[in-house]
Amino acid sequence: MPTTAPAAPAPDASAASASGLADVTASDSTLRRFLHGLPGVDAVGLEARAASLGTRSIKTTAKAYALDLAISMVDLTTLEGADTPGKVRALGAKAVHPDPTDRATPSAAAVCVYPDMVPFAKEAVAGSDVKVASVATAFPAGRASMAVKLADVREAVAAGADEVDMVIDRGAFLSGNYLKVHDEITAVKETCGTSARLKVIFETGELSTYDNIRRASWLGMLAGADFIKTSTGKVAVNATPANTLLMLEAVRDFRAQTGVQIGVKPAGGIRTAKDAIKFLVLVNETAGADWLDNHWFRFGASSLLNDLLMQRQKLATGRYSGPDYVTVD
């Protein structure tokens, strides 16, 4: 089961040029024309397809593989005002060895923390393949000056973050100021340099329509996102099968047009192994097997890991151990 992958290919300017996307971001008017020229989303059809794919049955052998794959895709996250170095170290230890009683259990993909907690997370996962991700750009609201946002990113990268999760300016996006959003993403990407991959969070629950989610997906990819991410986990509506399916279609179509592969991360609200497997089916049936790897697909859901571990133990022993047999995040 793949848990690591080669570095993502750098965006290919010639591919973008050949695909007719080179001039899309030349001005606000060209960007607006492109984004509003994307096909409209059939909401009924989208939700029906997502629901249909969620009914697929998984055999025992495939389920064991899917559980391990899902574990390897989890970004263990703590983003609370009460976070302490000790809590972050404990989360990092769990990411490296999710089930201390079974060292065959895959490691999680990453630990996601605030910038000031990055050094403690790096210490906890040292010597493993687990990445350290840091939220930035005035997470979760994104209401700060560009100087403050970029300082946030610089702090995270300087502390050793392997990945940066930024939030877009939803107010600018909803006002139709797409070029401002594009330029902010581009500036953050440049600040990440070559040492950190960039995840761009749309907060889909605040974008109101599926058409907006499709536009945000393409906007993020055009600006240089390495990953597009549904949500912060801090609002009422976060990742859903439908909005994740829509984003998977976007990355599939973007690669077909440019040759550049972009990752997807649904975050918030995915709590059970059953839910996670449904999302893996969405990935396989929409974007394809190339995305079934934690380099290209992640779950932003800490509570999910415990249920994955319990279901894994049940497959191995025939007994459901219950939550008392896994560590509390």
Q: How would you describe this protein?
A:
The chain is of the alpha/beta class. It has 13 helices and 7 strands. The chain has a single domain (26-325), classed as TIM Barrel, CATH 3.20.20.70. The chain is 47% helix and 9% strand. It is globular.
Question: What would a concise description of this structure say?
Answer:
47% of the residues lie in helices and 9% in strands. By secondary structure, the chain is of the alpha/beta class.
Strand-helix topology:
Elements lengths: L12 H6 L9 H9 L6 H11 L6 H13 L2 E3 L7 H12 L13 E4 L4 H8 L5 E6 L9 H13 L4 E5 L2 H5 L3 H15 L4 E5 L8 H13 L4 E3 L11 H18 L4 E3 L7 H14 L15 H16 L12
Parallel strand pairs: 1-2, 2-3, 3-4, 4-5, 5-6, 6-7
Helix pairs in contact: 3-11, 4-12, 4-13, 5-6, 7-9, 10-11, 11-12
> How many helical elements?
13
Share in β-strands: 5-15%
- Radius of gyration, in angstroms, nearest whole number: 19 Å
What is the helical fraction, as a range of percent? Answer: 40-55%
Low-pLDDT residue spans:
1-15
CATH superfamily: Aldolase class I
Our count of domains comes out at 1
- CATH second-level architecture: Alpha-Beta Barrel
Name the shape in a single word.
globular
Mean pLDDT: 91
Largest sheet features: 7 strands, parallel
